[in-house]
C-alpha cells in the first residue's frame, strides 16, 4: 500500500493484491457526509445521491489504443497538481484543476464532496477526470449514447484545512485514455469556465516546481525511516536525478512503455520517486507474470546490480528468482539515480509492496554498505547473503596473480569447518601482505554472509553454485544488455526478451513432462526422482547419484544418549585424496527421517548430496523421504503465471488466460465492494452465489 508521501510495508493480511486499489481514511475528528456524484454534471452538487448499481466491468481496458497525446508536446499553462498545493477557496481550486485539464485535453467533474453532518458547509471534494468509472446499464435493450468512460483514475482530492483555505492532499495524474482537446473544450466544465472567469482567478499559495513532463504518471515518494521509526527528508532534497538522456527521448520512452504496459498487462505495477525539485530520481516496475511467479519462488531472490557495478550506461537493477528449472526468472526491475541507502530503501519498499508484503527468505546482493543498510531496514527477517562472485571479484581486484587465485579458491572452497576456514584465511592474507588492507578486512568482517562454510543453514536453491569458477547465476539480461545499451534499446527489446524467457520455460515444462530421462545407474533413488523432478534439476541430481560410486566407508562415530540421533562419517575419494564428510541421521515419530551433511548440499542446491544418499541407502531406505523432494523442483506442479494478452478475447484452450480473465473480473467486484457496507454486502452475496453455482457445476 502507498499512503501520502510514504511507501511502507504493512502486515501481509492488510495488503490488497491490486496495486491500483487505494483506501482513503477520513479524518476521525470530523463527522463527514460523503456524497458520490456519478452523473454527467461537472459542477459540485452537494446532496446528490450515490449510484445504486455497480458499474459494468466487462471490457475494462480492453479497447484502449496506445497513447500518442499530441497535445502533450507543448508546455502547459498550468503546472500539474501536486500534494501540498493550497488555494484561497474551493472555487479557486476547481478553476485551477479545470484550467489544467483544458490545457492537457480532458474534462473534469466532481466525483464526490462531503460536508459536516447536519450542515451544508463543504469540507472536502474529489475532482476527477470525466472518463472516471463506467456507466450503469439500467435497461440493456434501451438506446444509449456511446460509452465515453474508461475507468480512468486521474483525480485530485481537496480538503478544507482552515477557514476558506483548501489543500490538495491526494493526486493521481495517470490517465488510461488518449486526450481529446476538441471534445474536452466542448465539455460542460470548460464551457462554464469560459463563460465565467476561465480559471484565470486561480490563486495558489504553493506551486511545487514539478517537471512539466511528469503529468500522466503515478507519482510516489518515500521518506527514509531510521531505526527508531523517525522519518527523514534529507535524500529528497538531493539534486541527484535519474539520467534518461541516453538514446534521446528517454523520459518519453519510459512514459510510453508504462502506458502501454498498463493497457495490455492487467496487473502491471510501476512507481516513480521524485525529489522536491520535481526531478525524477528512481523508477520501479513489475509485470503481472513476475508477481505471480513470486508466489512460487519467493524463497530465494537475487538483487542484481551488474549494470551499476560495471558502470553501464543504463542504471538498471533487477530482482531475480530461481525457477523450477534452475533458471533465473525476473521478479521486478528498477532504474536508480544513485546508490544511497535511501534509494535502496525506496526501491525495496516499492517491490515489497507489490509482492503482497511478503519478503524473501533469502536475499542475495553484492557487498555494498548502502544495500546492507536498506536490507536490514526493509527485510529485517530475511537471510541476507552476499554474492560470492562479487566478493571474489573484489578480493582478486586487490591482488590479481595466479598464485593468489589458487590460494583464494582453496581457502573459500576447500574447508568444511569454520575454524579451518578462518585459520587458512589468516595465513593467506599474511602470505600475500594483505593484513591491513581495508577491502580485505571489510569482507572478512562480513564473512558469515558469503563464505560457504557459514551458509549451510541458509536455503539457496542453487542461486549460488559453489564450484570453482562458477559462484553465481549469470546476469539475467546478458543476452541483450551491454555497456552502451540505451534506455530506448532496452525497453524496445524488453517484452520480446521476456516472451522468449517464458516461451523457453514452457518448452522446458513440455520436455520435462513428456520425455523420459535416461538413467545412468540402477539406483532406486535415480528412478524415483526421474518421475518427479524437472529435466534440468534431475540432471543435476543425477550427478550426485553417479558420484555415490566415489563414496564408501559409512562409519558410525557418535550417538546421542536417549535420542535417535546418530553421526556417521562418509569417505569420498577426490583424486588422490580421501576426505571425511560427517552426516547426522535422526529419526523422529513426527518428522520422520532427517539428515544433515557437513557439505551443506541440500541447503545449497535443494536436493540431497551424494553423502546423504549413500547413508540413506546404507540404512535401508528404498526411497528418498518426501520432505527432501521440494515442490519448487517438481514437474507435476501447475504454475499459472499471469499471461499477457491484449484486446482480444480469452483463448478457450488456454487455462492461463482463464485464470487472468477471472482474476481481473473478481478484482473489479472487490474494488466496487469496498465503496460502502451495502456494496460490500452485495459483493459478498454475489461471491457466495457464484461459488455455489461453480461448485454445483463441478459436482
UniProtKB/TrEMBL annotation:
Transmembrane segments: none
Record flagged with keyword Signal: no
Keywords: Metal-binding, Nucleus, Zinc, Zinc-finger
Compartment(s) of residence: Nucleus
GO-annotated cellular components: nucleus
Region (Disordered): 178-206
Domain SWIM-type span(s) in chain numbering: 581-620
Main location group: nucleus
PROSITE patterns: ZF_SWIM
GO molecular function: zinc ion binding
Cited Pfam families: FAR1 (PF03101), MULE (PF10551), SWIM (PF04434)
Highest taxon of the lineage: Eukaryota
Biological process terms in GO annotation: regulation of DNA-templated transcription
Known function: Putative transcription activator involved in regulating light control of development.
Family affiliation: Belongs to the FHY3/FAR1 family.
This protein's name: Protein FAR1-RELATED SEQUENCE
